[in-house]
Amino acid sequence: MTGLAQTTDETMLVESARSFIDQAAPVSHLRGLRDAGKTYDPDLWAQMVAMGWAGVLIPENAGGSDMGFTAACLLSQEMGKTLASSPFISTAVIAATVFRHAARDKSQKALKEIASGHRIYAMAIDERGKFAPEQVRTYAKSTDKGYELSGSKVFVVDGGFANRLLILARTDEGLTLFDIAADATGVEISPNSMIDSRNAANITLDQVALKSDAIVGSAGKAMKVLAPALHAGQAAVAAEATGLAIAAFDMTIAYLKERTQFGVKIGSFQALQHRAAHLWCEIEATRSALMNAGRVLDQSPQDAGLAVSLAKARAMQTARLAVSEGVQMHGGIGMTDEFDMGFYMKRARVLAEWLGDYGYHAEKIAQARGL
Asked: Smallest Cα–Cα separation from 178: which of 232, 128, 124?
């Protein structure tokens, strides 16, 4: 297995991404979107598409670069450092992985349109307060012409502006995944601005008429195409949270070096040094877990469940620690809206819930280890 160190190509990708994001999507960009009442910048996504990021997991014959899951995680990590808002995870990671595992005759068009930026996807799974794919109740009734889909979905990330929806529903055959247009008759979308100034939606499906070719994969076998995509998405979410933690840590260290109290820099206080050292160790361990998850996804994706859950669980805990320490060590300023740390804290809270919280992944780890 390839080591956890970045390859030359990966390092070049990270450097290119960092240069672009620092200029095009600093935290001030997200603040500007929030103040303008917006949750999505189509121009920023168009620039990311032009740089090839939408095709990072798409084969070259479909217009992508096929750099792999580790590369996708590295991009997500860099976006996390400045809270760059885009449909990268929902579209370029989750949806692209779904169609990579679907039959070629049905997936090629979707992959090409994802890579070119013409399709933006939102994954509609959740129906209650927690991530639980196996408990889906949305039902697709078989008809003479195909299926009739009814039910509701919540916390559909990017659902307010996506033009395509991947809907997990039950059919007589079992769990089935459908690819439908967001503006299909019978689909009602209620966009929401989350606490992190990003977009999610609640979706109501009322007797949505679908042809059989709307099925991705096979009826009753959704998890064959969805499970790998969820693992990829969970790793990418963990990567974004890791990038968020790194940025929060860097902000805090910079403040400790410049803030003076009692005539000395507060970074000289041993108690604060110990807390900073502990956070640094947690971040480094999480980065290793994340790189391992990316490598396993690239080389033996069927075995990625444990590595991905470990990365997701660790990243959520590390991000939470990083923003909490950041707020506390900054003192009163850490609680103000004018200071960026609050944006990092809010994003960390949302990432903690997306595609399974700490408890969900801790249980997966325990099951994998036979505990």
From this structure: 124
